[in-house]
Amino acid sequence: MTSPDLAALRPRLPSPVEEIADGRFDRHGIRLLLKRDDLIHPDLIGNKWRKLAPNLTAAAGRTVVTFGGAYSNHLRATAAAGRLLGLRTVGVVRGQELADRPLNPSLSRCAADGMRLCFVDRSTYRRKTEPETLAALLRTADAQDAYVVPEGGSNSLAVRGCQALGEELRARADVVALACGTGGTLAGLAAGLAPDQRALGIPVLKGAFLTTDIEGLQQRAFGGSRGDWSLDDRFHFGGYARVPTELDTFAEDFEQRHGLPVERLYVAKLLYGLVALADEGAFPRGTTIAAVVTGRPFP
Question: Are 173 and 97 in a shared domain?
């Protein structure tokens, strides 16, 4: 089998960097940049491109099997990649009960892009990385020879793919901040930054224990720890897909101020956290922060 020609998808790389004026940062002497990874590709957005691209090359035309919840952006991006590249894709979805319900907009888009959806109970889903369980899932999907991408797309190839994000931001900012799901983007980003820069991750999942996961990802990708990085887990707003009124109001206000659509599950939590940290005095005056816009609202 041959690898797909990803250049045919015409990604916009490096993604642009935009400076915005916002009084909530200006009054603390902080300069805010937005790293617009949401503009890399209309279907494979932001860190999804950076993580999927090396895995799609490694798949070399085989069926791609991956995993996610009912609102997984990773599943949507994988399904879109399959449609654009002519690859068969299978999404193993957490929650057997979803099989008896109408598909939500996210899963509907996956199906429309040709992804086969396989719903599994939550107990089986938790064991999906165990060899026997994985083999059974692949048999059920008629995909025994498939290329398997982990949930969220975070593996060694993905981490090395995200290293370029840090390299693109060298000499551009003192702190590079992004929202974290599985930690793969932060693991790669930190490795690509210069020694005098640091990466800040805002986890969007409650109790995700990402420190150990990121350390493990860097060990597998690079053979050891890389870069100066830290996490602040206070801004998950109760967990993944939780968007309370306070966060939604903040996002609407940011959109009105800057004319930028704000994705709620990741980007809104990142920006909210940065405003709060600026008010707390977490950044010295004169600091330049680059906030990575890893996604945008789906229609």
Answer: no
